[in-house]
Amino acid sequence: MVPPTPSDPTSTPQVPPSSRRHRSKRRLSLRALLFRYAMTPALILAVLLCLLFTLQQMSDRRDLLLSHGRASAEQLVELIHLSDGYAFEERIQWLDKSLMALMLERDMIRSVQLYRADLNSAGEEEFKLISSVGPRPRTIFTADELRGKSAHVHEDLKSLQVLQPLIGDDANCWLSIELHRPYFLVGTYQVALVGLVGLIICSLVALVWAVAMSERASRSMDRIKESLRIIGTGKFATRVPNSHNLELFQLGEEINQMARNLAEYHRDYQEGLHQTMEDLRQSLDAMEEQNIELEIARKKAEENSRVKSTFLANTSHEIRTPLNGIIGFTNLLLKTEVDQLQHDYLQTIQRSSENLLTSINDILDFSRIESGNLVLDHSPMNLGQVLEETLQILAPYGYEHNLELVPFVDPQLPPSQIGDPLRIKQILTNLVSSAIRCSENGSIPVRIAVLSGKESELMVRISITDNGERCDDQGRRELRLLLTGTANQQQLSNSGMGLGIARNLVHSMQGEIGLDENEQGGCTYWIQLPLTIDRNRIAVTREQFPGCRLLLVDPNPMTRQQIYQQLSYWRAAPLEHNDGESLVPAVEQMWRHDALPDGLIIDTALANNDFDGFISTVQQLIDTYQCRVIIQGSPVDLRRCYDALRTRVLAFLAKPVSREGLLRALKRAVPQQAQSRPQTGTFPALPWPTQPRVLVVDDYEANRRLMSELLRAQHIETTLADSGEEALRLWRGQHFDMIFMDIQMPGLDGIATTQTIRSEESGRRTPVIALTAHAGTEEKSRLLSAGLDDYLSKPVSESQLTHTVKRWMEVSSNGAPTPLTTLMEPRLVDIADSLNLANQDARLARDLLRMLLKGLHEDEQALASMAQSGDYLAMFERVHRLHGGCCYCGVPRLRTATEQLQELLRPLQEKHLDGEKAETQRTPLSDDDLPDKATFETVYKLVRKEIRGLRDWAADQDLDALFGLECEVEQADPGETDLDHRL
Fold first, then answer.
1. Residues 153, 124 contacting (CB under 8 angstroms)
2. Buried b vs exposed e over 731-746: b needs ≥16 C-beta within 10 Å?
């Protein structure tokens, strides 16, 4: 909108804000108002009366003047008419004398003239002045203007004349008397002067009256204002004095009534305030008492919580300490020569102990999850083995409801991952237990599938499917609420608490959990977990039974499918049979055609509670047809036929069937069919430049012996101490590369012992690792802040111990490097190993090897440049990437060489990472931090030698022919391989 211009007549003038504020703040006092209201009517009335009087006097003066002129004119005309008998000239003369007499009154008459109308020379009629007295009139009339008119008064701005025609004369004669205006004006001025004097007198009188009235009203208002001011200060006894004016009297009465009301309200307010203050004081006293009670209750609750935590910690310690010995020595005993039944018993003891440990973790984790203090472990594990162990523990519970737990492990699952095996076992235990509670008479398959993999990251999906025969719709809704976290936590049962713990653990691992219904009326529990591939572990060589014909005799199609898939993965040739009655005729038919299988795997389910017939059938197969038999079944069924068949059957396989148990049974039943290379075990001994010395401090003898055996297997010299005092004595007299310290000991405990060591040590810091059965977050923080470097939770597993030792002690080779994983010199390229690592996928094995060979030239040049410049940190990254590629190809010599160089440079990388966490910029490595020059040169030259050997080998080889793919047509883009599609 355009503002109006100043020239626009319709525009509204803009008033400055300051003028508006000034105008709005302008106020008139009561005195001024009364003064105005008293003076204005008096002045208006006086002015009106003065004007009226003046106008009246002017009108009277004019009427008097006109009446005098008319009377004079009428007398002269009458005199002229009376002299009609005389001659005209005589009458004119007499008229002149009369006119002279009339002029004696000069104050009213200015002049007198007599006109007559005569014909001029042209014959026209005109007025002629016959007689005149006084000055010439200001207005002269013509004959035509007066013809036919009677006597009248002519008045204009110039003159005031009285015109009177002569009587009885035929001639047109007129008498004109011009009146004297000053006479009229002087009288008017006199009247106006009198009116002005009267106006002044009236104004003075009105002024005096207005002043008197305003002063009187002002004094009355001042008294009222002063009374209101005093009342406003809180003096409510003040009253306004009475006034003679009715309105002011009424106003004073209202103000006095207001003062009385205010006094009453103030009195009530004071009384209410005093009462409120008293009530508030009583409330504060009561609140103070409640606060004291609440403080006492809080302290009691804290004390109860502390007592509960202490109780849980002590209970955990007291249970974990013997469990450490039970599980540890059971593992050691399993490595000795025992028969199969004893081996199964030992495994049952081990799994039951781990199940007890899982239950303890459930109790502790529930409180940790509620308080948000849950800490996950990151240690090497085998997820498939964790699943199989969990199902073997829960199998007796499933057999009570005629259920079989069947594990399916994806062959693409790497042999070792980094995760929290105990917590994953907790999750699986709770989910499988829930599936068992919802099922009856059937099988519960538990599957592990690899969804995706990128570099060292892995996403796996674990699914458990029940048949839903013992779960209604309401139960399904409750399960779904439990898994989504919307169930009422206060009304959880034991099973509900387990599912809640499983859900929270999955979320803590950055995974997902859900429940899907299927068409058969059951549902599938599924979880997705991200895992890290453990590339520092030596891959276990996969066993193979190429062409081995094995007959699976099992009425349960689910367990047949599980074993069939595993045997196919081992390159065996499995056959299936599900009828017990036709088993002997079928074997006889095979025997007649010389097609008898290499072994039979017979399930005890064929007995159908007739174990005598089952035993006789098995004996017939062994005695008559010389069959090599493996009996599989539940532990209860195996015990029922063990004594009768122990000398006939080659192996007993307990269900749920694990891969390790199946492999062990096959090696006993068909040893001639197995193809495997010598192995050093899952946890090979670490290479040391010199044998390290470790001090183990624990007041429990079984734990000391267990740690001694585990460390001895790693070629570590171990010294034992049963108290903190003995540990200090040994430490002061000897040198130790590492100390394993128990925390809870009588006398000098582990924390006090560690603090004493820290205060006395000088120079190199000795790593002190806590051995504690307390797994709480507060306990771990307390240990680390007390000077300990790391901690191991009891029971200590062999994998955790190996991982910790490698982390805190420098691992390097002394002298010339030697192969670590085999006793004989491995091949430069092992095609069979490549196929095993690629799950017998020839195209994938070829692509992996081709990708490795393609980058060898660039790797060799980069390593040479880094070695020349001394950039060991960049060399570690390059060697680590090269070693990762070797782990998926059949190049055992280069894999071993890169692993040795990687482990030699790893302490530099860890020191560099620790420095980056502590400082914002890189700290240059000192000479003491660098590896031994001679050792480094030896290992580095070995890596370069193996790289050049591989490059020379690849120049003369056809990979398609080596892997049996010479007949296949390559894709249009050679850079896009099957591996790219798989990734």
1. no
2. beeeebbbbbbbbbbe
